[in-house]
Write a structure and sequence with these properties.
Blueprint: E1 2-8, E2 16-22, E3 30-39, H1 42-48, E4 60-61, E5 65-73, E6 85-88, H2 99-102, E7 126-130, E8 134-136, H3 143-146, H4 149-161, E9 171-174, H5 178-189, E10 195-199, H6 204-212, E11 217-220, H7 226-233, E12 238-243, H8 250-257, E13 258-266, H9 279-283, E14 287-290, H10 296-307, E15 317-321, H11 326-334, E16 340-343
Parallel strand pairs: 9-10, 9-12, 10-11, 12-13, 13-14, 15-16
Antiparallel strand pairs: 1-2, 1-4, 3-5, 3-7, 3-16, 5-6, 6-8
Helix pairs in contact: 4-5, 4-10
The structure holds zinc ion (2 copies).
């Protein structure tokens, strides 16, 4: 059986197209998932433009933020059956043997391969998924919101697991992209106040969204000095700076506005390497924390938050498109017309 899929086929700009491919066969421990919805990640857009900074095994079907209905179960699958509504984690392949895998930190397994760059992803009618990646979702949670569990989990890991936020902490989020905005929402839910989201002039609509998500200040750094805003609120600086800008240069900004004994959490990727003066890190006794991916307990918690409507995802999703309109879904995000696009493969 054949199906259409959004395939990243070469490591050059624009090398993505809708192709007919074979519906995958599943192994004993896997399920075949009928994709209900798959949201477009900034990383999908980067891969389509060949501006990504991670290894991609082409050709590969894009899409790692998805949910759907179990269509077929392998013989060894326990706990899931045909017709179950689920979302899937992204660690499609792990070794299962290393100390990280054995202690539930499998998202950091050195052998990890994720959907959409190492293993065929979900921008298709069907996708093959190991059952260990699955989480049930409540009937009340529609797929076009449930697919956002993944980016929310990235933000939850960054703000609620890898960072400490106490009510009343001054938190700054650099970069109002989808992940930055979701980090801002998680910070708001954790009691951050003041909560500053900083971006550029082109980010104006996203900065408005940041305010709707609970930020107390939205700073356009082309018009206003972020340093002045931060020092005006707290002369020592920010308790926590979340760098979600997707640039390496902003580390310098983060180190300038964080307070002594504060924390910088870096969640954005960048292909550039930069020379940054790290002396302020030492002198200020600052904790610098990277944040990557997520694991089982985070997913369960985020599904609960989404089902309760606590994360306001409808403020993020600006476009829902069928599979054959994938290009428009990508372009709308790249051009900044929407923050997040969702592809619904079953829609016409
Ligand atoms: Zn993503
Ligand atoms: Zn491992």
């Amino acid at each position: 059986m054949r199906m259409p899929a959004v395939v990243h086929y070469a490591l050059e700009p624009g090398a993505v197209e809708l192709r007919e491919i074979t519906v995958p066969e599943i192994g004993d421990e896997e399920v075949l998932l009928e994709v209900g919805a798959v949201s477009v990640c900034g990383s999908d857009v980067h891969q389509a433009r060949n501006t990504h900074s991670w290894p991609v095994a082409v050709p590969v079907v894009l899409g790692h933020e998805f949910g759907g209905t179990v269509a077929q179960c392998g013989r060894g699958v326990r706990g899931f059956k045909e017709g179950d509504r689920v979302v899937s984690e992204t660690a499609a392949q792990i070794c299962g043997e290393c100390v990280l895998c054995r202690t539930g930190r499998y998202n950091l397994c050195p052998s990890r391969k994720g959907f959409g760059y190492g293993i065929n992803g979900a921008m298709a009618r069907w996708v093959r998924v190991p059952a260990r990646c699955l989480h049930h979702i409540p009937d009340s949670l529609p797929f076009d919101i449930a697919c956002l569990t993944e980016p929310h989990s990235v933000a939850y890991q960054a703000m609620c697991v890898n960072s400490t936020i106490r009510p009343g902490d001054l938190v700054v989020v650099l970069g109002p992209g989808p992940i930055g905005l979701l980090c801002a929402r998680m910070a708001a839910l954790s009691g951050a106040n003041p909560l500053i989201v900083a971006g550029l002039a082109v980010d104006r609509p996203r900065l408005e969204t940041a305010l709707a998500l609970g930020a107390t200040h939205a700073v356009d750094i082309t018009k206003e000095s972020l340093d002045d805003v931060v020092r005006g609120l707290s002369p020592l600086g920010a308790d926590l700076v979340c760098d979600a800008s997707g640039s390496s240069r902003t580390l310098e900004v983060a180190l300038r506005i964080v307070r002594p004994d504060g924390q910088v959490t870096k969640v954005g990727w960048s292909p550039q390497t930069v020379a940054t003066d790290l002396n302020p890190l030492v002198q200020g006794n600052v904790r610098l924390q990277g944040s990557f991916s997520h694991n089982y307990p985070i997913w369960e918690r985020v599904i609960h938050l989404l089902d309760r409507g606590l994360t306001l995802p409808e403020k993020i999703v600006g476009l829902r498109a069928p599979l054959d309109a994938w290009q428009e879904a990508f372009d709308a995000m790249h051009d900044g017309r929407v923050i997040k696009s969702v592809i619904v493969p079953g829609a016409q």
